[in-house]
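User
New here, explain this?
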Amino acid sequence: MIPTQHLLSIAMTQANFLTSPIPAPRSYPDGTPEGPARFFNREVSWLSFNWRVLDEARNPRVPLLERLRFLSISATNLDEFYTVRVAGLRELVREGHGTPSDDGLTPAEQLALVNTNARRLMAAQQAVWTGVRREMEQADITILSRSRVTRAEEAYLRRYFVEDVFPILSPLAIDPAHPFPFIPNLGFCLALELAAESDGRQMQALLPVPQQIERFIPLPGGTRFLRLEDLLLMHLRSLFPGYRDTGYCAFRVLRDSDLEVEEEAEDLVREFESALKRRRRGSVIRLKITAGAPDRLRRLIMEKLEVKSEEVVEVEGLLGMADLGALVLDNRRDLQWPSFTPRVPERVQDHDGDMFAAIRQKDMLLHHPYETFDMVVRFLQQAAHDPNVLAIKQTLYRTSYDSPIVDALCAAAETGKTVTALVELKARFDEAANIRQSRRLERSGAHVVYGFTQYKTHAKISTVVRRENGQLVTYTHFGTGNYHPITARIYTDLSLFTCDPALGRDASKVFNFLTGYVQPSELENLAISPSTSRTG
């Protein structure tokens, strides 16, 4: 086991495992470490994971646009990490908590380690973007600066600005009559210093960059793109007639998004809805601002957002790197992994698509995405419309916006079947979507429960009770992934379909635990974390 104090340096030196030399072996004391040295720090370990995500963005064996996708994912991951995990650490530091965690580090020590590592990670992301952008240009995908726009493209961009952008913009002067506006989480703004052309009178203003418009604007031909913020800078005179800009910067805000929910709340759904509203107005955790920002603008932004200097990151390069995923172009499949068609299990085809007949013949173990996740959807759709099906029980952690699984559960409930759904409200950043799905299920007549206040329910189980030859047969699906048909196309997961009576009894006991809080006894095949998984 590697002591925590060495973890940061190892993460930094070995992150680029593709080109780094094999490190020299380290010597550690014999025997099992005692005390804090037994543990890895969770936050530093997570950053090491995100370094590995970034490594895929610089892996020359990965297709170019897939590398761009990994770069975008690493940036999205880091934003979420700061809005949740770092937000929690900062709160502990501000409240004066000095108790070390199991790895021996106090909250302040953890926060310092995280910030140092994260700044290096962000610098590495910019370096990777520089290289990827250069390769994209060689592949005829160009991100333009304003100076490289042609006259014909200027005319096109002028029309685009007037018709598709100008109506959405809200330029905001900053003075006693126009206080500094609220900038939401992930909010992206231009801050401007302006001077009146008539008398030179100074004015400061903000121009929020609307999130409803694509960040990279495709120019005619579809291979050249201009960033939205550059388009806005090109047309400032249309927004502030009679003024010229004397300085500007761009900045992006991350806010505390960690949900605090009262465990004794009378209505958990309403408590989550209130917490989601509070989250939108959480305190600023990190301010990213373009390097070289005018001093007056920088001080104003920091003062109005109540940000300390250590929470400010000056960026030499691209702000909002999470948006790069939009440049994974559908028309450039040559720069992505080859597409493939997931396999439909032969046994399902042998039974003309009848999932119950296929499962009765023998248990089915599927490997997604290589074998299609549509079998899971089909299983529930057939159950919803089968007159012999009496009951369906389902866990839902994350699912898609227009979920065919939720549609099937609603259809089953509306036809009189007993439908029970556990909807996990604590699925990070899917809370609002899950509340919406739970309302749909309730309106259809399903029984909806929300699990445990002190735990997240990650179990992925679905049971269908069917009457066959005068007896009740339980068909069960166990999965390692979410019931999410879209992410199931790319995530690697396993699905087990079975009508084994013992597994059906165990699944029913687990659902009774989730709905009635009665911990099951004498499980025949399953173990439940955290109660029986260790001993089992």
